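Predict the 3D structure for this chain.
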Amino acid sequence: MYPHWLETWWVERALRNLGAPDLSAASARLESEIQRLSDLFTTERETRFGEYGRDEGLLLAYGLFFFPQTFARSGFPVREAIHPHGWRPSGGGGGPVRLLDLGCGLGGATLGTAHALAEAFPGLSIEALAVDQSTASLDTLRELAAARPDGTGRLAVETARGDLRTWFAKENGGRRWDWIVASFTVGEAFYGQPAAAMAPWIDAAMESLADNGLLLILEPALRETAERLEAARDRLAGQTDRFIWAPCPHSGPCPLLAEGSHWCHEVRRWAPPESLVFLNRHLHRSIHDVKFSFLLTGNRAPRRPWEGSDPARTARLVTPLRIRKGRYSWGGCAADGKRRDYELQKRDTGEAAAGVLAATARGDIVETGPGREIGRPPVFRLEGAEPPRNHSRPNGEGKINFPHPERVPPESPDFS
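Done. Predicted structure below.
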């Protein structure tokens, strides 16, 4: 859930700076700025990307419209690292956890990551360093961090001006981090270069991790950016001192990249704040889903609770769950490194299995009952009424998504 204090802080700043009595009176100006910022992120990205921190109108547009989505997006992989993969703070769980956010902008990923950690480990002490080249953005982030109310966790935020590309070579100073986060910044830093250009940076980042540390790279859900991450994870696959935590339930090469037809990305449901919903009423953007691709990797192996069972039966959903006449079906990347289609006939579905599937969403890791491959191309058809096990939501806990699973009609493509 997006914190109410964050929403209030941005709304009050907008009203104060625009001289408006309420959000309705300021909406026309803000909608225009949101459209202008959206253009800056796309059509004008090569020449003016990143200027929003110096322009108050664009800054307010980002804070009200894009900041909440950045905050929410970063929390999904963090929660996945914690469960099912078993990440825990070192030193007994009390912290401090050291968090580095490179290319932080206004700090949406800084606060979103810290919020997810504090939510999972109440009382956790977190020391965050937010790095960006924009002095204006860092100034705003310091104001925002200072405004945090009491009772929102033990978080200390420092800022530093720096370049993501040279940070580890010139400015990190040998420091070790429990979390290194780069949200929608690595692709921009290496824009126009081959995927291999990211490799030395990823190596340097992982060398700067603490023993229990993780590197999280988030990128847009575009084919170009997703496949660059897939190529990066393939380079790590099989290394003895580098371990892929997510999105894959296996450590082999990416089957989607090998097929070349689709690309790995997330479409996660969340509950946007009321102010964002209000500002979207004329813009008609898709705001109830956050879309992104990501890579989560570390220097220690993750826990994989499904190891020891038939690897074909455990897969991460890489499509929405499809509820069709007579059957449930979904596409998954399985623990044996293969992309499969799964199918369960409704006549074979007991009440318990139906309940598990009703709560299942894209991105969840699901272990099914026995089955066999049928047809051409083969489909893994489940046999019997043994309920699937959702490793992302055991006993209703550790939920990766809000309980509104993505649904698509039968004629929709698998990889939307």
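The chain has two domains: 4-298, 311-396.
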